[in-house]
Amino acid sequence: MLPTLTPLAFDPAHPFPFISNLSLSLAVVSRSPGADGPRFTRIKIPQNRSRFVPVPGRTHEYVLIEDLIEANIDLLLPNLEILDVSKFKVTRNAEVRRDEEVAEDLIDMIEEVIEQRRFATVVRLEVDADMSDEAVSVLRTQLGVDDDEVYQRRGLVDYRSLFELTELDRPDLSLPAWTPQPHPRFGAERAAGTARGGSATVFDTIREADVLVHHPYHSFEATTQRFLRRRRPIRTPSR
Fold it and tell me: Where is the Polyphosphate kinase middle domain (predicted)?
């Protein structure tokens, strides 16, 4: 794992490293022997590896990769006094405004917007609840965030990787498959149509009152798809 980790120090001789959107990182505050003050180092958690590292000899037991790196931080930063190790994640603004009507080439404009999103303004900084004030101050200053944009997290800083656990072969922890159900309003509609000797439509039901459908719990085919099939064409006045 060590070859995939690249500690990036921030000091007067090194600029603050670029923090990509939604990436999980470790903030390390350390001190060199004889140095005047502490130094800030950022270690990006590799995204090309599973975040859950299996414990040897154990079944379905895992260690978070960031905890494993923190426990062996002395291998990455030897001969340094480690003062603080904390996790953090930044979220950048995904909204980049462009006027589509004046764009000469829409595809080029979209590619430019996607590229600019990588360097957009940071709108949220999530940190460990016990991160040192010094580390928080460095991140706030260098990322340009206000106090109300800093969120302290207890437990995991990033929950997205928990989806990996759904791929485990543990049927005893999985909910049974759900079969979408017909909406009761549309069932009553068909019964009413049969009683009148005809067939009521989706629009007859909607005309009586709005119908709220909740997918995937309600059947898409028996509700929304049925509505789309029975929709009436919109006629435009002839000129």
Answer: 2-165
H/E stretch holding 90 reads: strand 81-92
Distance of alpha carbon 44 from alpha carbon 87, whole angstroms: 10
Q: What is the pLDDT of residues 102-150, one digit of tens each?
A: 556 667 777 777 776 777 889 999 999 999 999 999 999 999 999 999 9
Q: Phi/psi at 181 (nearest 5 deg)?
A: -105, 150
Q: Cβ atoms within 10 A of the Cβ of 40, count? A: 22
Strand partners, 63: 53
* CB neighbour burial string for 147-174, b if at least 16 within 10 angstroms, e if fewer: eebbeebeeebbeebeeeeeeeeeeeee
pLDDT tens digits, residue range 31-80?
Answer: 988 878 899 999 999 988 899 999 999 988 999 999 999 999 999 999 99
Closest CA to 60 of 174, 155, 165: 165
Range 2-172 has CATH code 3.30.1840.10 = yes
Spatial CB neighbours of 98, under 8 Å, sequence gap ≥ 6? 109, 112, 113
Given 3-state DSSP classes, what are the helix, strand and coil percentages for the chain, each rounded to the nearest 5?
Answer: 35, 20, 45
Please report, for the chain, the start and end positions of each structural domain, with discontinuous segments joined by +: 2-172, 184-230
**58 and 66 Cβ atoms separated by less than 8 Å:** no
Per the listing, tokens 């090194």 go with 14
Task: State the pTM of this model.
Answer: 0.69
